[in-house]
Design brief:
The chain is an all-alpha fold. Helix content is about 70%, strand content about 0%. A hairpin with a 7-residue loop joins strand 1 and strand 2 (about 65-70). Helix 3 (about 80-110) runs parallel beside helix 7 (about 175-200), helix 3 crosses helix 12 (about 265-275) and helix 7 (about 175-200) packs antiparallel against helix 10. It is globular, with a radius of gyration of 28 Å. Keywords: Cell membrane, Membrane, Transmembrane, Transmembrane helix, Transport.
């Protein structure tokens, strides 16, 4: 009687059958979820953006037919003192608003990352201004900046009454006075982004650093910051885009004044388009804003990729 062995069609047999399936068909529902938003985005975002590039090369008042002027609008910017002021103020806004948002948000995230009693209250308090609209934030801070308002009262109570001034009416302080409420709202948003990134850091890395005798600053510098490269890319993109499109809070508080001292490229673009009805020139300013945002973000991403490679 022969021993019972494995047949050739078994798992260890010589001839193994493999199933070859053809290309998987994509569900119509999935296609709908992908194509419908793409069509909406193309109609309401991509096509108007392309039209904006075309209008930047024209002289158009919104009523008559656009007249092609080539790069004439961009040439006019060179001799436009208001544009130069708005460009300088936008650079200041990008550095101060962006830099202080990152520093403040990262610092608050480090301070509040540990789960302990009452920490949720502080997180909620810092995030609450993000829930308010920028117009509401502007109205609140306009009350604070009024003569004998909260800001003046605080300065006088700490013996700094000599610094009291009409904050929003003084060309020397208007821009910086508007940056403060913008930061008040933005720091909580950046804090949440960094808190999400800190939750993803492996605690074993901190334990190993402690065993090696690393101080708290060294753990932050050599463990935390390198582990947050992905979050930093997101934060930079958010900060740059928010900085260059900042409009609501500036327009609600100063309308770019006094004497264009708080004018940004976004507010100048709006006033040029809808008050001076120079839509071609305003489209050229929009192109400048787009190029600035793209240059800063791509510059950072290229540098980050080079460091990783």
């Amino acid at each position: 009687m022969e021993p019972r062995g494995r047949t050739g069609n078994g798992p260890a047999g010589g001839s193994r059958r493999t199933k070859r399936s053809g290309p998987r068909r994509v569900s119509p529902l999935i296609l709908a979820f992908v194509l419908v938003p793409f069509v909406v985005e193309a109609v309401w975002v991509f096509w108007p953006a392309l039209q904006g590039f075309w209008l930047a090369l024209t002289n158009w008042d919104g009523l008559s037919a656009p007249r092609f002027v080539g790069f004439g609008n961009f040439g006019d910017m060179v001799s436009d003192p208001i544009f130069r002021t708005a460009l300088k103020n936008t650079a200041i806004w990008l550095v101060l608003f962006g830099g202080l948002s990152v520093i403040g948000g990262f610092g608050m995230a480090l301070l509040l990352q540990r789960e302990r009693r009452g920490v949720g209250i502080y997180r909620a308090a810092l995030f609450t201004p993000v829930v308010f609209s920028l117009v509401v934030t502007a109205l609140i801070w306009r009350v604070f900046y009024q003569p004998d308002g909260l800001v003046d009262t605080v300065f006088r109570s700490v013996g700094l009454g000599n610094f009291v001034r009409p904050w929003l009416a003084d060309p020397d302080t208007a821009l910086y006075a508007v940056i403060v409420p913008a930061l008040w709202r933005q720091i909580g948003y950046v804090m949440v982004l960094y808190l999400a990134g800190l939750k993803a850091v492996d605690p074993a890395l901190y334990e190993a650093a402690k065993v090696d005798g690393a101080s708290a600053w060294q753990r932050t510098r050599y463990v935390t910051i390198p582990q947050l490269k992905g979050v930093n890319s997101v934060v930079l993109s958010v900060i740059v885009i928010d900085s260059l499109r900042s409009f609501d809070i500036v327009w609600s508080m100063t309308r770019g004044g006094p004497y264009h001292s708080s004018e940004l490229l976004s507010t100048y673009m709006y006033s040029t388009a809808f008050q001076s009805t120079q839509l071609g020139y305003a489209s050229a300013i929009a192109v400048v804003i787009f190029v600035l945002a793209l240059a800063v973000i791509l510059g950072y991403l290229i540098r980050a990729f080079r460091e990783e490679s």
